[in-house]
Structures are given as structure tokens and as C-alpha cells.
Specification:
- The chain is α+β, with helices and mostly antiparallel strands and 267 residues long.
- The chain has 11 helices and 14 strands.
- It has 2 domains: 162 residues, Uridine Diphospho-n-acetylenolpyruvylglucosamine Reductase, domain 3; 96 residues, CO dehydrogenase flavoprotein, C-terminal domain (Enolase-like, domain 1, 2-Layer Sandwich), CATH 3.30.390.50.
């Protein structure tokens, strides 16, 4: 780990000011991805901006037909929230299945989205529910936020402040997890809303993506049989030591059907 300056601003305005001052500075939320990368010297920012004292980035609430989660909400807080359980129980179950207890108590939703690991769980929920990511500068639709492996639409100086999820009619997330890391080898989030169906896949490619052929079939008939014959091409999927692209392509179909079954059953 190389030397860096450490700052702990008290509010969002102060954090943004420090971020503008130091080129390539990194905001620090839960640190579950950033700290290991610092230790391995994969990242060496000149300054860390600890967001932990910024209360305006916390909180979880339902307002009308939407659920808003502050960027500093930990996975454990999302999993235990009564508002999340009431509005989007699938999101609570997703959060409860992230990593281990330490990761769930330290990691944050904002940090996970900003990092955009290609096998992370939250991106599937954000894309699968057509959520909106709010920053200190603008609002970004989920469809425009994830741009590639560990890459997002965030610009220099932008900090995620909260995420707003429209409440679905029903939804579910199912993942086939890598047993050591508990990341998704393949994870599928399915939701049915007001006249729309969305299917988001994580773990299979360079970053989370929508399975639009499945969405079309499910919009006509929301049931596992409707997508039983929908095939996912392995051409742009990931092959690594854990699974081939062909195996991941097969898993997308299997896991998607299980997610639809879980959504119908309310699980």
C-alpha cells in the first residue's frame, strides 16, 4: 500500500470540493473493494475521501411508489429494512446473500454500484428494476449507468448519493454463486411492473446486461415455460477458471426460469 492523504468530510459539499482538488482521488464508502486493491497496489490514489460521516447519504424510505436507499446504506441495513421488505422483498433477500457477515456490515450499495464488479449482485437489481442512480450532480437511469467491466457513467467529481427503485408488482433474484467468493457465477433479477418486464443478468459477461429476448416472451406470458427455449449466445460471455462461456450461457436460461418461478411464488 502506497502513501495517500486521508480526508473525512462532514457533508457532501465538502466531499465534492476535496474530490475536485485532488486528481484521481477516491471516495471511500465501505471499502470492501477499494481497501484490498490498495493493499495489492492495484490502485494508488493520491487521496482517500472517507464518506462515512455524511448523514445525508444515509437512510431508507418508501415514498409513494418508489423506494429510495441512501448510498451509504450497508448490505445488512438493506437486508434488515422494513421498508425494503415491504416494498421490494426480493431486494432484501439479494442484500442478505451478498458475501459474508463482515462484508454485509461494511459494504454499501453506493460503493458496490460505483465499483461495478461484473459479478456483483446490486447491479442486477438496479438494472432489473429500472432504478435511478442519484449523484451530487445529476440523476442517471440504470440503462445508461453500467458501461463495462468496472466502468460506469460516473464522471470525475461525481459521488453517488442515493438510489431510487420503482416498486414492482413482483420480482425475484436467483444466483448460482461461486462458493468461495459468493459472487454470482450467474445471477438473474426478474421484475414485472406496470406493463413492463425486465430481466437483468450479472456474472455472465463484462458487466450486467438485460436479456431482452426473455423480457419479450415474459411480457406475453409471465411464466418459466415462456423462456424455456430462449437461448443465450455465449459469444460475448465470460470464460474463466470458474466456468466457460458456454456453461454460463446455459446457466442464464436455468437461473432465469428459477427467478420467474420465485417471483410468481413471492419468494
Amino acid at each position: 500500500m502506497r502513501a495517500f492523504d486521508y480526508h473525512r468530510p462532514k457533508n457532501l459539499k465538502e466531499a465534492a470540493s476535496i474530490l475536485r482538488k485532488f486528481e484521481n482521488a477516491k471516495p471511500l464508502a465501505g471499502g470492501q473493494s477499494l481497501i484490498p486493491s490498495l493493499k495489492l497496489r492495484l490502485s494508488s490514489p493520491p487521496a482517500l475521501i472517507d464518506l462515512g460521516s455524511i448523514e445525508e447519504m444515509r437512510g431508507i424510505k418508501i415514498d409513494g411508489g418508489a423506494l429510495t436507499i441512501g448510498a451509504l446504506a450497508t448490505h445488512a441495513e438493506v437486508a434488515a429494512s422494513k421498508d425494503v421488505a415491504l416494498g421490494i422483498p426480493a431486494l432484501a433477500r439479494l442484500a442478505d446473500g451478498i458475501g459474508d457477515r463482515q462484508v454485509r456490515n461494511q459494504g454499501t450499495i453506493g460503493g458496490s454500484l460505483a465499483h461495478n464488479d461484473p459479478a456483483a449482485d446490486y447491479p442486477a437489481a438496479v438494472l432489473g428494476l429500472s432504478a435511478t442512480i442519484h449523484t451530487n450532480k445529476r440523476a442517471i437511469a440504470a440503462d445508461k449507468f453500467f458501461t463495462g467491466t468496472f466502468a460506469t457513467a460516473l464522471k470525475p467529481g461525481e459521488i453517488i448519493t442515493s438510489v431510487t427503485f420503482p416498486l414492482p408488482k413482483r420480482a425475484a433474484y436467483v444466483k448460482f454463486r461461486q462458493p468461495a467468493s459468493r459472487f454470482a457465477l450467474v445471477g438473474v433479477f426478474v421484475s414485472e411492473g406496470a406493463g413492463t418486464v425486465r430481466v437483468a443478468v450479472t456474472g455472465a459477461g463484462a458487466c450486467v446486461f438485460r436479456a431482452k429476448a426473455m423480457e419479450k416472451r415474459l411480457a406475453e406470458n409471465f411464466g418459466p415455460d415462456a423462456i424455456a427455449r430462449v437461448k443465450t449466445a455465449p459469444d460475448e460471455l465470460t470464460s474463466d477458471m470458474h466456468a466457460s462461456a458456454e456453461y454460463r450461457a446455459h446457466l442464464v436460461g436455468v437461473i432465469a426460469q428459477r427467478a420467474v418461478e420465485a417471483a410468481i411464488a413471492g419468494k
